[in-house]
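FW: tagging you since you asked about this chain on Friday. Here's the raw sequence from the shared folder, copied in full. Didn't touch anything.
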Amino acid sequence: MTTTAPLARRLGTGDAVVIGLSSMIGAGVFSAFGPAARAAGSGLLIGLAIAGGVAYCNAVASAQLAAQYPTSGGTYVYGRERLGEWWGFIAGWGFVIGKTASCAAMALTFASYAAGGPLWANRLVAVAAVVALTAANYHGISRTVEAAWVLVGVSILALVVVVLAIATSGHTHGGIGSSSFGAYGVLQSAGLLFFAFAGYARIATLGEEVRKPEETIPRAVPIALGIALALYLAVGVAALVGAGPAALAGSVRPLATAVNAGGAAWALPVVRIGAAVASLGALLALIAGVGRTTLAMARNSDLPRWLASVHPRYSVPDHAELLIGAAVVVLVLTTDLRNAIGFSSFGVLLYYAIANASAYTQPKQRRRWPRGLNVVGLVGCVLLVTTLPWSAITAGVGVIAVGLLGRSLAVRRRRLQCEAG
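HL: got it, structure written out here
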C-alpha cells in the first residue's frame, strides 16, 4: 500500500452539488434560528442575508481556487500555495479541529431527534451513527454520494413541508416585523446562522475526486449555495410567521415550535424525521471532508505521515477517516453541543478568511470573479468572528496556538535531523 496514491475521480456536477447540499442542510437549519432569534428577533432575516452574502464570497473564492488546485485539502492547500506554509497550516488545523467538533454536534443533534431519551441513551445512539457513517465513507466516495442523495432529498422534503404547513395553516404569531433589534444583534445572528451555511466548500475539499474539476467545481459550489439560501429564507420567514421571534428565541427546536404554534402540529413528525436525516447527511459529508483535509496535511508532514494512507481498493484516506471517526466518538461521549457549535464557527470563519486572502492573490488569467468579492468575504469573516461568544473565541485561539507550537517543534526536529544526516 502506498501512502501517496491519488484518489479516483468519480464525481460529476450533480454529485458535487448533492455533497454540498448534504453538508449545508444539516442540524444548523433545524436549530440555528433559535439562538439567532435571541440575538436579533425578527432581524434574524437580515442576519441570514448577511451570512448568505459572506458565504457567497467564500464560496466563489473556494471554487476559483479549487479550479486551479484540484486536489484534496481545500484551503489548507490554497493557503500553502498562495500565502505560504504557515497560513495553509492554520487553515487546515482550524478546519480539522473545528469540523471534528462539528461532527460531534451533528451526531448529538441526530440522536436528540431520533431517540429523544436520556442523555446517556442519546450519546449511545450518536456513537452508533458515527460508526455507521464512518463505515459508509470508508467503503468509497461512491457510497458516500449514494447515501447523500437519499439523505438530502428527505431533508429538503421535510423543510418544504414545514414551509407549506405554516403557510396553509392560517395561524400567525407576531411575524416578521414584530420585534426591535440592533446592529450588533443582527451581526451576531449572522455569525450564528453562518453555521448553517458552512458546508458548500466540501465540494472543494473533494477536488481530487471530481471529474473535470476546473469546470465542475466552479459550477457546483454556487448552485448548491443558491439552493440552500433560497430554502433557508423560506424557512426563516415561515418560522417567524408561525411562532414569532419570542417563541423561537426560547426554543431549542425552533422549527418544531414554529409548526406547533402555527397550528400545524401534524407536521411535527416530519420535522423530527427531517432533522434527524439532515443531521446524518451533514455528518456523512463532514467525515469525508475532514478526512480529505487530514490526508492533505499528512502528505506534507503537517500531521503524522501514516495518516496519508489511501486504501488500495476503496481509494479513500482510510487511516484518516478511521482516526476522525474515533475522535468524534470520544467527543460525542464527552462534549456539550452548544460549545461544539461555537468552536466550530470560529474554525470555519478563520478557514474561509484565509480562502478569501488566497483567492485575492490569484492572477487575472485564473480569476472567474472580481477581487472585490474576496475583500468583502475576508472582512465579513473577521467581523463575524468578533460577534461569537468569548468562550468560543478563547478556545479557538488556544487550539490554534497549540497547533502552531506543535508544528514549530516538528519543523525544528526535521531541520535538526537533516543537519545531523
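FW: The mean pLDDT is 83.
HL: agreed, and The chain has 17 helices and no strands.
FW: great, closing this out.
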